[in-house]
């Protein structure tokens, strides 16, 4: 065996992910709104790219983002880097081209990139854009601003910095979340001074703000309503007993009868446990659908929500102008890279839309009963089933269904919602989805009336409906729905009756 150094030549094969391939995979998992941000970044760094509103269609020398070409690239070919073909030529006959549309009502036949039909020809989701719901968002002052405005005339000038610090530590619900001793040490002031400022803040609107726990919050509101007598004070001090429904013990502690206890509980229910929530905070963000699904006479229409997706344009006239001048070698290489990057982005976004439409079409086909009859008819479905049906990889389907929402006649749903585990039928028939079982459990509990249904009773009723399900599964689904146990529901019913 020779120990001398030597040179060997070996030949091997390996799969290397190029930056463009990695970016194409990343684009699949982004929602339309995230794609909008990505496009803005690309337009900023590439002078040959331009982004226009989705409704702009008068761009004779530019290439649309979702142009329908004859040379279609398979979805998995984009991921594997094969079949990409040559870069598109600069001379395009736009009289024969099909353009991305904002809705079905916008255009005629060549709309593969925007609309797909399940067992049908072109149909309509159509219609004008709805009202901008964000225009109705709450623009009121935040809780901190509201409290600071009241602190101005109520707090002495020398204590203003203490008040500002205390208000800054009050959360959105209106509670003070930091110890007064910590605040006193941090500001270097006596504790009694901080307590005095807090007592003043607790007189501000909304009543109950600045409390350190629920009991103090309710006590402040009871004092404001002139209802803080010794009986209700004991009730507030023993909220844990009230939560457990130990009314007999509470009546003995408060020295009241059934009628007085009912009045006191009714009084507490009229108070606001989170007084700060009525002010400010972050405005609620509405979910924007990425897809529209609608029933037509000919079948199902599935359309990309193009209103949230800017149209990317390749400015070929600007490229011709730049390439026609005198350039050094580095400038020519840079311009070629910009053109290649722009053409790749247009092609990748085009293929992304085709892939999303293809996956969504198969989901609608598999879950047609849900779209027609509701959640009780949701079928068990896995990513592999969809991937096998459309001849794609399972990971591709997973990326496509991430962060994507579909709007249909039954509401707004995430694409992941349609993938549920299977529950075997009690009579040996076709399995049902876990979501359908959850819907059945909720319906039974909503109609249970005066007789509270235990988990064992729910199992029997579900078995009678054809669901072969264990008690622990019923408990798990019930908790996932945010529904308490039979004991908790019975206590809640007793408090309502009290």
Task: Summarize the model shown.
The chain has about 500 residues and is α+β, with helices and mostly antiparallel strands. The protein has 21 helices and 9 strands. The protein has helices at about 20-30, 30-45, 75-80, 145-155, 160-170, 180-185, 190-200, 215-225, 230-235, 240-245, 245-255, 260-270, 315-325, 330-365, 370-375, 385-390, 395-400, 435-445, 455-465, 470-480, 485-495, and strands spanning about 50, 115-120, 290-295, 300-305, 310-315, 405-410, 410-415, 420-425, 430-435.
Q: How would you describe this structure to a colleague?
A:
This protein has helices at residues 19-29, 32-45, 75-80, 143-154, 160-168, 180-187, 191-201, 214-224, 230-237, 239-243, 247-254, 258-269, 316-324, 329-366, 368-373, 383-390, 394-400, 434-446, 455-464, 471-480, 486-497; strands at residues 49-52, 115-118, 291-295, 300-304, 311-314, 405-408, 411-414, 422-423, 432-433. The protein is of the alpha+beta class. The strands form 3 sheets. It has a 5-stranded mixed β-sheet, covered by helices on one side. A two-stranded antiparallel ribbon has the order 1-5. Strands 8-9 form a two-stranded antiparallel ribbon. A hairpin with a 4-residue loop joins β3 and β4. The longest helix has 38 residues, at 329-366. The protein is extended and about 90 Å long. The model is unreliable at 57-131 and 133-139 (pLDDT under 50).
């Amino acid at each position: 065996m020779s120990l001398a150094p030597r040179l060997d030549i070996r030949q091997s094969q390996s799969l290397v992910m190029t930056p463009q391939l990695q970016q194409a995979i990343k684009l699949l998992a982004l929602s339309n709104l995230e794609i909008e941000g990505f496009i803005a970044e690309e337009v900023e760094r590439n002078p040959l790219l331009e982004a226009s509103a989705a409704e702009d269609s008068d761009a004779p020398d530019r290439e649309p983002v979702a142009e329908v070409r004859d040379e279609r690239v398979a979805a998995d070919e984009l991921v594997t880097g094969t079949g990409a073909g040559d870069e598109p030529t600069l001379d395009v006959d736009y009289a024969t081209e099909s353009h991305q549309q904002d809705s079905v009502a916008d255009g005629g036949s060549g709309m593969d990139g925007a609309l797909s039909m399940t067992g049908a020809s072109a149909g309509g989701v159509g219609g004008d854009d709805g009202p901008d719901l964000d225009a109705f968002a709450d623009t009121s002052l935040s809780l901190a601003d509201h409290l600071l405005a009241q602190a101005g005339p109520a707090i002495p000038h020398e204590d203003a910095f203490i008040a500002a610090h205390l208000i800054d530590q009050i959360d959105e619900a209106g509670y003070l979340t930091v110890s007064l001793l910590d605040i006193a040490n941090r500001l270097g002031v006596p504790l009694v001074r901080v307590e005095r400022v807090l007592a003043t803040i607790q007189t501000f609107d909304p009543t109950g703000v600045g409390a350190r726990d629920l009991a103090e919050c309710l006590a402040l509101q009871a004092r404001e309503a002139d209802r803080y007598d010794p009986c209700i004070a004991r009730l507030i001090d023993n909220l844990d007993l009230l939560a457990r429904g130990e009314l007999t013990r509470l009546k003995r502690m408060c020295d009241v009868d059934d009628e007085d206890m009912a009045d006191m509980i009714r009084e507490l229910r009229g108070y606001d446990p989170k007084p700060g929530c009525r002010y400010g905070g972050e405005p609620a963000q509405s979910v924007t659908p990425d897809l529209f699904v609608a029933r037509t006479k000919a079948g199902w229409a599935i359309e990309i929500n193009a209103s949230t997706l800017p149209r990317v344009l390749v400015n070929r006239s600007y490229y011709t102008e730049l390439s026609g001048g005198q350039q050094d070698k580095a400038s020519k290489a840079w311009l070629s890279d910009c053109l290649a990057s722009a053409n790749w982005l247009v092609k990748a976004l085009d293929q992304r839309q085709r892939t999303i439409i293809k996956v969504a079409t198969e989901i609608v086909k598999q879950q047609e009963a849900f779209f027609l009859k509701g959640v009780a008819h949701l079928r068990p479905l896995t990513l592999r089933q969809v991937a096998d049906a459309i001849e794609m990889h399972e990971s591709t389907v997973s990326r496509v269904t991430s962060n994507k929402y579909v709007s249909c006649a039954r509401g707004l749903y995430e694409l992941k919602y349609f993938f549920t585990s299977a529950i075997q039928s009690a009579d040996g028939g076709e399995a049902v989805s876990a979501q359908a079982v959850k819907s059945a459990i909720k319906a039974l509990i909503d109609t249970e009336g005066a007789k509270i249904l235990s988990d064992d009773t729910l199992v029997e009723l579900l078995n009678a409906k054809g669901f072969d399900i264990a008690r622990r599964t019923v408990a798990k689904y019930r908790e996932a729905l945010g529904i308490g146990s039979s004991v908790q529901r019975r206590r809640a019913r007793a408090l309502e009756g009290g």
